[in-house]
Automatic annotation (TrEMBL):
The gene is xpt. Belongs to the purine/pyrimidine phosphoribosyltransferase family. Xpt subfamily. Residues 51-153 form the Phosphoribosyltransferase domain. It is found in: Cytoplasm. InterPro entries: PRTase-like, PRTase_dom, Pur/Pyrimidine_PRTase, Xanthine_PRibTrfase. Homodimer. One of its GO terms (molecular function) is xanthine phosphoribosyltransferase activity. 5-phospho-alpha-D-ribose 1-diphosphate binds at residues 128-132. It catalyses: XMP + diphosphate = xanthine + 5-phospho-alpha-D-ribose 1-diphosphate. This is Xanthine phosphoribosyltransferase. One of its GO terms (biological process) is purine ribonucleoside salvage. Keywords: Cytoplasm, Glycosyltransferase, Purine salvage, Transferase. Converts the preformed base xanthine, a product of nucleic acid breakdown, to xanthosine 5'-monophosphate (XMP), so it can be reused for RNA or DNA synthesis. Pathway: Purine metabolism; XMP biosynthesis via salvage pathway; XMP from xanthine: step 1/1. It comes from Agathobaculum butyriciproducens.
Amino acid sequence: MNFLEERIVKDGVVKEGNILKVDSFLNHQMDINLFDQMGEEFKRRFADKPINKIVTIEASGIGIACIVARHFGVPVVFAKKTQSVNIDGEVYVAEVESFTHKCKNQVIVSKKFLGPDDHVLVIDDFLANGCALQGLISIVAQAGGTVEGIGIAVEKGFQQGGRIIRNLGYQLESLAIVEGMDAETGEVHFREQ
Ligand code: G4P
Ligand code: NA
Ligand code: NA
């Protein structure tokens, strides 16, 4: 097991409905030393890529992205979620459906902060169905930029997102891939990587 898998075993909590709570270290209270290790690992895995920007989505991607960005020495842009429909042409827009929360959001990024010269590393905390990621990929494409890679903390390997994104040809690196979990025993099973 790697450092993140070990931390999930130690402090993650398995809930009914295949939900993994990691709010004591990842997406509510945040362990910055852990994020720093994640940044070091992503830097190693994407060492050959000319990354000049990190793109993430609010809310819980932001903290991780900021610490990861220190390892690349690049700025972070986060996509904002909005329900408003009157978009003014100054922003890139993508529709993102959340299966967990059963709602649709538009996510937007200002055209000022993303363009054809950008070589982007996309960062997020969770990958489940991949809707959020596909929205971010669409926004980078609208900008004429390049997605150089995608770094995820926890991928739910039994949902479809990872397969879809890898089939599109992206280098997707997930630090922990959960293949299954048991709310009765609290056990979490990881994919061998
Ligand atoms: P998708 O983006 O991969 O399609 O994910 P999905 O719609 O299934 O998930 C919706 C939200 O729930 C996402 O956060 C995602 O990170 C989160 N999520 C999915 N599965 C789990 C889980 O097992 N545990 C935890 N803790 N979160 C999970 P969000 O609402 O879009 O963003 P945020 O505001 O929380 O960052
Ligand atoms: Na997220
Ligand atoms: Na989340």
